[in-house]
Amino acid sequence: MATPGKAPDTGKDADTGDPETREVVVKVRLNASGDPEVSKEYFYVSKSKNEEVRWVCAQEHDCSKNRPCFSVEFKNNDSPFYEYQFSSDAPVSGLVRRNVLPSNQIYKYTVRIGEKSSDPGGGVNQ
Ligand SMILES: [Zn+2]
Known about the structure:
Layout: E1 23-30, E2 36-38, E3 42-46, E4 52-57, E5 71-74, E6 85-87, E7 107-113, E8 116-118, E9 121-125
């Protein structure tokens, strides 16, 4: 008779609690004066650990209504990654390019939110 209802899936299982992550998270928000600001003035990714950057929106708004709510672009297309443009819709850097060696070079990039921008940077270490 009554179909045994499918046990409500609590959905907990899929929730990766705290993934052992290879991601370096850089939060993007606006500071008090309305300029874009990142949580790490310089990010560092480890090449040997295959780390990647994930830029995350930390603005107090509904990101789905503001897409893309920020963009990231490396200066002069000089990116340590295979791509040089990222955004809230494409927030993961991917791996460091094979021919980029760990060094103390800083790769400058521009974060844009609306009309405003700022220029933090990042580098690659061992
Ligand atoms: Zn957002």
